[in-house]
User: Fold this.
Amino acid sequence: MTFPDGHDGWRAHDHATVRAVLADGRFSIRPDLMHNPFGPGSPGDAPPSPPGAFTDHDPPEHTRYRSRLTGQFTVRRMRLLAERLEVITAEHLDVLAAQGSPADLVEHFAVPVPGLMICELLGVPYERRVEFQQDAMVLTGASGAGAGEAVAMFEAFERLQRFMLEMVAAKQAEPTDDVLSDLVHSEPAGSGESPLTDDEMAAMGMALLGGGLDTTTNMLSLGALELLRERARVEAMLTDPGAAVEELLRYISLTPATARTALEDVEIDGVVVRAGDTVFVELGSANRDPARYADPDVLDLARGTAGHLAFGHGIHQCIGQHLARIELKIAFPGLFTRFPKLRLAVPEEELPHRASLVIGGLERMPVAWD
Assistant:
């Protein structure tokens, strides 16, 4: 395919080829090496990602950062977060009910629940959570910043960076039971590995925020929309939340694509991708590959969806995927158990979708239940 800057790059769109590209260490994720599939950007136009932003680094930097985080997503922590999520979900269903029917599911449920879970994960103090969530919503485009959105997002990013550095300093002085505290007090994996700097740890916290907030928010709203289209889907979710969530992840494929750049000549699926070529990797297409899934364009909540690529694949597979699954498996049944008559309060064609090339979602979702 021809990229916006004129580069003749490639599309990987079937399940096997997408997995092969994502698992091959000869492909780089670095934005500064990439021809941008979405705009005129060419290699060198984007600055190198800052130290600590592990989602945009290749090994060995990525390995150094990710190895310090992998051990933080323990079974014990996931259990404690699940217990907190039960409480947070119930509290925000109460908030939704208090608004009266109809109310906006995005504003009163889909946005605040993942936001508070990120606060729990990072150990944001309770007295600062409103401030933190407001800036996070602006940064992810979930606040309706309007015409000044770019300026507002930049300012929110700067405030969150300063906030994360303050958090790192606070955790160094007085650790609590959270991922950021454990990261601050973790030891290098090897004798030759340098300790993490404050800036690196703050950037790692920002990467966790970016990866876990907007994605789950939009999955909750778009998933609820799919479930509301047929009553049998709600029943399937309540019967087997685990299977239903996996099929929603496959079917919606919230992050539809990513990209990689070849560091050397690589032969994939009989095609030689030359060094410097960028491959547009279509996760959404791979998740609808008929060679992998029968009737892939049908949402079948009882389907076996092993191997779907909603969380990516390879060394950059989403580190928080287990927490995301827990959130969805608790939030969806909680919503439809509390509001068994839940329905859209406006025609579906009137729902305002977010204008985004990267992560889809809804700006608002008015629902009724009386």
The beta strands are 10-12, 27-28, 103-104, 257-262, 266-268, 271-273, 278-282, 343-344, 366-368. The first strand starts at residue 10 and ends at 12.
